[in-house]
Protein 1
Amino acid sequence: MATGVPRSPIRSVSDSPPITLGYPGKKPAEEILATTPGIFEHVPTPNANMRKRLYFAENLSVLTSLAQDPGVCGKVRLVYIDPPFATQTVFHSRKLAHAYEDVFEGADYLEFMRERLILLHRLLADDGSIYVHLDAKMVFHIKILMDEIFGAGNFRNYITRKKSNPKNYTRNQYGNIADYILFYTKSANYVWNKQVEPWTEERAREYQYVDPATGRRYMKVPVHAPGVRNGETGKPWRGMMPPPGKHWQFPPSTLDEMDARGEIYWSKNGNPRRKVYLDESPGVSVQDIWLDYRDAHNQMVHISGYPTEKNINLLRRIVEASSNPGDIVLDCFAGSGTTLVAADSLGRDWIGVDNSPEAMRTMLHRFEHGTEPMGDFVGKQTPKRKATDTPLFAEPLPAENSKPVCCEVSDFTLFASPDLASALRSMTLTHQAEPVKRDGKARSAKAEA
Ligand SMILES: C[S@@+](CC[C@H](N)C(=O)[O-])C[C@H]1O[C@@H](n2cnc3c(N)ncnc32)[C@H](O)[C@@H]1O
């Protein structure tokens, strides 16, 4: 395995001149930050809670307004966005309702994204994080814009997600089953709850040795690491120097203690290796390739029916890793509300924005009734319903059906821009849903993934 040694002293990214992206129509950041804030009408809901806000509006106007709100500006712990990808596509729901249009391209698309990213940077807390979900088409351009706005030194990961099963591709190129998530933080000190994947029997096979005395499974790993050190870890241990170009992972006194506890394995040639026990490891640290979060891929997966809806467990991982209970999570391209439901189920407050009527209808229905198995949408252009079914959102309710079957989110406040407020009023909740008690602990993700 190749081992690189960081050069010393380590040069920070900020020491090098920044790389910027030039395109026509790129405005000064000050001009974007000075955009006139939007004004919104409050639309009543049964259990209004200002800590959870859903806006039916153009998101630039909402972000500029939130930038003036001292309760939000600089206090958002996590932003996740899944914006249009510049695909030149019109999206429809599973029930063939028009959802949204992804028609910006080139410089117009870049400036549309940059305006929102600059405001999102302003809204983030100093220890906040942002995840931007994109596909291969624009991810490189947006990476450069994010380096400009968040600082290249605050880039954390370029996550590759497997979004679907292999396709029977007819074009003369490789199948396309990946999309990408850019993860940045606002500073070097950020909320981070390490995520681990539990052991599977296959992964645990790496722990191929068994301690004869205890029966514990372990693997052997080096006791040295790349790079020369002049301190304790560069000194001889048991008469041995670290291999050339390396240093001990621990000071010699600690290595002595580990050896006394039986944690060092000595080869026949007298080379030390460290024993790492399976039962002491909670699992494998999550890496930057995510294979287990495909979007709806079989008939049993629960979905909202909104196009481009993301896997709820993908969002639960991001929310758990980069926020804590009580924090504000923001998604200004909310779609079917996956981020908002994930955040709510984990005891976070949230702010969601979308300007599509179908997205609003979907979110309000989802909050009240949850999702449905994908199979139930097949061949169903108008929903087949029995008289005994729970009524669809906004249908008049018979008295005996006044409780929702599944209430995912029940206490939130609705806002709309003046031009959309009356449309939103015609959609608002018909059920007097009970507020869901939250304790910050994860609820089961049902059969959604
Ligand atoms: C890819 S979808 C998001 C899907 C979402 N992640 C989910 O899991 O359902 C993008 C959403 O952004 C919304 N959108 C696009 N431009 C917008 C804008 N300027 N203001 C508000 N919403 C916008 C669209 O209506 C669409 O619902």
Note: The domain at 23-168+175-195+286-425 is CATH 3.40.50.150 (Rossmann fold).
Protein 2
Amino acid sequence: MEILTVDLGERSYPIYFSRGGFEDIGTLMQKHSFKGRVSIITNPVVGGLYAEKVISSLKDTDFFPEVIKIPDGEEYKNLNTVSSIYDSLVGSRMERISPIIALGGGVVGDIAGFAAATYLRGIPFVQVPTTLLSQVDSSVGGKTGVNHPKGKNLIGAFYQPRFVLIDTTVLKTLPHTEIRAGLAEVIKYGIIKDHNLLLFLEANYDDILKLGGGIDYAIKRSCEIKAEVVEQDEREKGLRAVLNFGHTFGHAVETLTDYREFKHGEAVAIGMVMAAALSYELGICNYGVYKRIKDIVEKFGLPVSPPPQITADKLLSAMEIDKKVIDAKLRFVLVKEIGEVVFHEIRREDFPLDLLGMV
Ligand SMILES: NC(=O)c1ccc[n+]([C@@H]2O[C@H](COP(=O)([O-])OP(=O)(O)OC[C@H]3O[C@@H](n4cnc5c(N)ncnc54)[C@H](O)[C@@H]3O)[C@@H](O)[C@H]2O)c1
């Protein structure tokens, strides 16, 4: 089992990478000095596939697991679901030392993490991410939270897990669209921090899409990059915002399509191509950089342009409502070279309106 440490002083934690690692979860829990009762928060889909494995490993190592099932879907990522989790935790008298295991994708991880951050002012939690997106992104870095009717992820807390267990074999049951959506974030890591990762993705896209050996390297390298960024800026005071490459445009595309047409990763894919196009238009990168980004996004079967009903005007208005507006200027992460990004602020009137014609 390979181990990567996220170095955050007293909040440091390991990420364990394995194939078939759910069988070891009980031993890992013991290694982290947990004992007794454990709550597993999952949803019916993931729970139906994997909860038994986790429960049996925990029972074999003298734990007393209890499963809390929450409904599947982003629409349930809200305070009502958190409240139902509190009811279960209070009902079974879970104590401050009783950990929560989040078994599922980013939705389960974000909700379970927030419940753990707030129940009894904080109980330990462990991330067991089961989607590609959650393995390369949401399970690492300690952002937890839920949506408010007025916006996504408006309620939350920074709260780091005690460890993360990534078992890449679970990706076999994940729908292919979810795999592709997760790969958008992997491509993002290459663009923002690691030219070699992008070269690897370009050379091995076929193997990666088929979940061959390349996917393990791509996941591990993505976690390393995310960990490096989070270690330098845990609470997103500055640098951590590089992780938002493609997200300003991507969020606007998600909003303007009512979150129905694209998965988050697909919207980010479009957003990355748009950010690359903007970088080129502003003379921050050359045409070759823009073209490589568009090509790799296409190679992974991801969309590269927003649907025709999204005009430049609508896009700008949606971005202005998003949280990235400072002093009436839109703030973007733009690309200089593959592996190097810069922050750039731009006024609405200076935005190149022909950008949409380029992507
Ligand atoms: N905390 C962070 O830093 C962070 C970062 C990025 C995204 N997020 C959040 O993550 C969420 C999206 O997460 P996601 O993309 O993992 O979606 P998700 O959690 O909704 O999972 C997608 C679907 O796959 C199913 N599923 C999960 N694992 C499976 C498996 N192994 N086999 C079969 N089906 C499986 C789920 O039940 C669900 O239906 C969003 O709410 C987003 O805001 C958080």
Note: The radius of gyration is 20 Å.
